[in-house]
Design a protein that fits this description.
This protein has two domains: 9-84, Arc Repressor Mutant, subunit A; 97-308, D-Maltodextrin-Binding Protein, domain 2. Helices cover 46% and strands 20% of the residues. By secondary structure, it is α/β, with parallel strands linked by helices.
């Protein structure tokens, strides 16, 4: 990159992985480098940006407010780079990826890595040829469009309504919870917030088109309320979670995404009277069943490991 303050993609990918996993060691494994190499790369990134991006502690590593901001921008740059790389490969006629999967942010962050590992383990046990998978994280509307237009072989989305233009099956049910930083005044609230009180809350939220935001808006509309204008809109679940931990406004997150930080005392769940639940669905085009082979196997793994 030409800018003296913008790290290379490897450094940005490491930073995003630290935000997602909460650990330099886990991020190192996720990016395929040793922990020592990851630590050195992180120091280089912080030196280049002139910012402290990660707060290291005995219970893991968390992004600083500056780290959250840089990670949010980095995720957009990485996504764009991956899209360009995919487009160039397509123009060159390369077909080295057997399965193109698109997934909404929550599923891509919290569930998809485990599903893909299990798909590969299953193929090894069956002595099958290993499937090369291309995974793209996007919001639910973008995932549905990718499946409908043929850019994705298989998609996974979150929401309350069944998509109308593609085939789908429910693979799991999920609950959204309202979370705040542990020292927020709402963390000491004893009685549940009513729908009207939630509607008056400025929130940290996902962008329009995300499944999480759609579910919250739907739950409020069922009570005759509408969502307050967001304090900040972010395009990844990780960025929302890290922003709230850093002291941003409350946010609705999947309980799966927030449970580790809640258990560690970084976040607190605020009870509400809203029924904020949703379904995770697998999407595909064509016949009533997912395409035979790795796509169908991946859907079966998703159903088995998350509960339908």
């Amino acid at each position: 990159m030409d800018s003296p303050h913008v790290p290379d993609l490897a450094g940005l990918r490491l930073l995003v992985a630290i935000g997602r996993t909460g650990s330099i060691g886990s991020a190192a494994r996720a990016t395929g480098v040793s922990q020592q190499a990851a630590s050195e790369r992180l120091r280089s990134v912080e030196a280049q940006t002139g910012l402290t991006l990660v707060q290291r502690g005995p219970r893991g590593s968390a992004l600083t407010p500056s780290g959250v901001a840089v990670t949010e921008w980095a995720a957009q740059l990485i996504n764009l780079t991956d899209e360009v790389e995919t487009a160039i490969s397509g123009l060159r006629g390369e077909r080295n990826r057997d399965l193109s999967v698109w997934a909404s942010m929550t599923i891509a962050d919290a569930l998809m890595p485990r599903w893909l590992v299990q798909l590969r383990n299953r193929q090894r046990q069956e002595s099958s040829r290993l499937t090369s998978v291309s995974l793209t994280a996007a919001n639910s509307h973008q995932v549905e469009d990718a499946v409908r237009t043929g850019h994705a072989d298989l998609g996974f989305v979150e929401g309350v309504a069944r998509p109308r233009h593609v085939r789908s099956v429910v693979v799991a049910h999920d609950e959204l919870v309202l979370v705040v930083a542990a020292d927020d005044v709402l963390a000491r609230r004893k009685s549940p917030l009513t729908a009207a009180e939630v509607a008056r809350l400025p929130l940290t939220s996902r962008e329009r088109g995300s499944g999480t935001r759609d579910v919250v808006e739907h739950a409020l509309s069922q009570q005759g309320e509408s969502m307050h204008e967001s304090v900040v809109e972010l395009t990844t679940t990780t960025a929302v979670r890290e922003s709230v931990m850093a002291g941003s406004a409350p946010a609705f997150l999947s309980r799966r995404v927030a449970e580790r930080e809640v258990a560690a005392g970084y976040l607190a769940v605020v009870d509400t009277t809203l029924e904020v639940s949703r379904q995770f669905r697998a999407l595909w085009s064509g016949r009533s069943q997912p395409p035979a082979g790795p796509a169908r196997d991946l859907v079966a793994i998703a159903c088995r490991n998350t509960g339908r």
